[in-house]
């Protein structure tokens, strides 16, 4: 153990944590499966084998026997090259991280007497939040005797959502309702609009890669180095609508 305070000397190195595999596996028998070559789909199950037989199978296939789970009665192993298995794990972790981000609830506050300029600023912020996949809570607040003008609050929310970009990207979750000294309504992003934007981005990326490939072949006299096309996304994508767990409230305090 290093004594004293301060920073450790020398450069930092990232130590790779490798799974138990091949001759390191000491269990007498293991449950074996072979992942699909594409990384997508179900494994080919070989069943329970003596570890010695599983190692022999790995040698025949010129792959590794990797221990992936010891939680059950019989440990689970996969027959796959270690470099390929590591790539698959990194890709899976990246996908889970991307899809596990909880949807945030942004709140936009305003007075029923808000001027046109400030209203446009809030509409712009709402559009930005929706495009990022967040839900937005619109809150029209009243002070004291202003509560006698609640009807103007409902009109304001209708005008707020009449902006073309908000009509395209958002939709009210139910009707505005009175909440304390104000009127509020939740606005959710239209899933079909997000899906369409993702498809448009993928199409642009494919077009860009195709143009790069054609340009490289032209410059190289038809024998240019091939540039790989954009890798297709995995079939399983978690819909934003399923990411409603663990919501966090982030309030935009812009009350005038």
Question: What is shown here, in short?
Answer:
The protein is an alpha/beta fold. It contains six helices and ten strands; from the N terminus they run E-E-H-E-E-H-E-H-E-H-H-E-E-E-H-E.
Give the topology, please.
Layout: E1 29-34, E2 44-50, H1 51-61, E3 64-69, E4 76-80, H2 82-99, E5 104-111, H3 116-131, E6 135-141, H4 150-160, H5 164-169, E7 170-172, E8 177-179, E9 182-189, H6 191-219, E10 248-252
Parallel strand pairs: 1-4, 5-6, 5-10
Antiparallel strand pairs: 1-2, 3-4, 6-9, 7-9, 8-9
Describe it.
Among the domains are: 22-99, Translation initiation factor 3 (IF-3), N-terminal domain (Ubiquitin-like (UB roll)); 104-192 and 246-252, 2-Layer Sandwich (Translation Initiation Factor IF3), CATH 3.30.110. It starts with 28 loop residues before the first strand and ends with a strand. It is built from 6 helices and 10 strands. Residues 1-5 and 222-256 have low confidence and may be disordered. It has 256 residues and is of the alpha/beta class. Strands 5, 6, 7, 8, 9 and 10 form a 6-stranded mixed beta sheet that branches. Residues 1-22, 196-256 are annotated as: Disordered. Residues 103-188 form the Translation initiation factor 3 C-terminal domain.
């Amino acid at each position: 153990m290093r004594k004293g305070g301060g920073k450790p000397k020398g450069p930092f190195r990232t130590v790779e944590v490798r799974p138990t595999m091949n001759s390191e596996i000491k269990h007498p028998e293991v449950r074996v499966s072979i992942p699909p070559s594409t990384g997508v789909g179900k494994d080919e199950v070989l069943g329970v084998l003596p570890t010695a037989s599983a190692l022999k199978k790995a040698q025949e296939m010129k792959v590794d026997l990797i221990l992936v789970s010891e939680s059950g009665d019989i440990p689970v192993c996969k027959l796959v090259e270690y470099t390929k298995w590591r790539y698959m794990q990194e890709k899976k972790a990246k996908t889970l991280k991307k899809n596990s981000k909880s949807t945030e609830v942004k709140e936009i506050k305003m007075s029923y007497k808000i001027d046109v300029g400030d209203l446009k600023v809030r509409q712009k912020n709402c559009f930005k939040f929706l495009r990022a996949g967040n839900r937005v809570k619109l809150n029209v607040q009243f002070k004291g005797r202003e509560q006698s003008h609640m009807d103007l609050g409902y009109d304001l929310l209708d005008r707020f959502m009449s902006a073309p970009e908000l009509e395209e990207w958002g939709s009210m979750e139910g009707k505005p309702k009175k909440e304390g000294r104000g009127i509020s309504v939740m606005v959710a992003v239209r899933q079909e609009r997000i899906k369409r934007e993702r498809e448009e981005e993928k199409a642009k990326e494919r077009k860009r890669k195709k143009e790069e490939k054609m340009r490289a072949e032209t410059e190289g006299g038809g024998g240019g180095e091939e540039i790989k096309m954009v890798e297709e996304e995995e079939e399983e994508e978690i819909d934003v609508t399923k990411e409603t767990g663990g919501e966090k409230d982030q309030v935009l305090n812009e009350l005038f």
